[in-house]
Amino acid sequence: MIAAIKIVAAIVVLLVVLNALWRWASRRHQLPCPTWLSWGLGGSLADWFLGTTTALDRMGVRTGLQVLEIGPGPGRLLVPVAQRVRPKGRAVGLDIQEGMVERLQKRAAREGVTNLEGVVGDGSQECFPPESFDHVFLALTLGEIPAREDALRQCFAVLRPGGRLSVTELFPDPHFLSRRKVRELVEEAGFRHEATQGHALFFTANFLKPSGVSS
């Protein structure tokens, strides 16, 4: 019994250390979730653990919207978003890893989702025309981006006036950002805080691009 407790404790300590090292490294280098780990982001168990339905509801995605996700991975959130915005809406996923975009498109095809597009690109660089989207969101992604300020400025640029930016964070994601840090970063980019739902370890913060402000 004591031996088993020691083993469990050792595993917990190892996970904490690895989490801390990953967070430290991600502050200095762009370290997105590797493509080979994307298998862990699919299925009902991942949806439950990562709060997929809760995050979707908090974002307030509705039919007819043009939606962009920065860092969609294999489409855990973006595929159901595409389903929610049908029939006239569109969902676009921008990911820096070509392998992730391929998996995103394969999942969309497998589930019969035809209003979804995957694009390879860097979220901190200009990739879309100004004011192309009604809603932009990042889920467990903002902390992965070293040039966060640039990425948020790009989000501001591609949103139409009155459009919404949603940021979802969940601890113990290695790149977790606090509610205070998220709000500080996003408001510095020119957004106005709308509402934050959830608690300190799992929340979605919604922001608006002020009406009458062009990119």
Protein described:
The chain is of the alpha/beta class and 215 residues long. It has one domain: Rossmann fold (3-Layer(aba) Sandwich). The protein has seven helices and seven strands. Strands 3-2-1-4-5-7-6 form a seven-stranded mixed β-sheet, with helices on both faces. A hairpin with a 2-residue loop joins strand 6 and strand 7. The longest helix is centred in the first third of the chain and has 25 residues, at 2-26. The protein is globular. The N and C termini lie far apart (62 Å). The model is unreliable at 11-20 and 35-41 (pLDDT under 50).
How is the topology of this model organized?
Elements: H1 2-26, H2 44-50, H3 52-59, E1 66-70, H4 78-85, E2 90-95, H5 98-110, E3 116-120, E4 133-139, H6 148-158, E5 159-170, H7 179-188, E6 192-199, E7 202-208
Radius of gyration: 17 Å
What's the CATH class label?
Alpha Beta
Which architecture name does CATH use?
A: 3-Layer(aba) Sandwich
Outline the low-pLDDT stretches.
11-20, 35-41
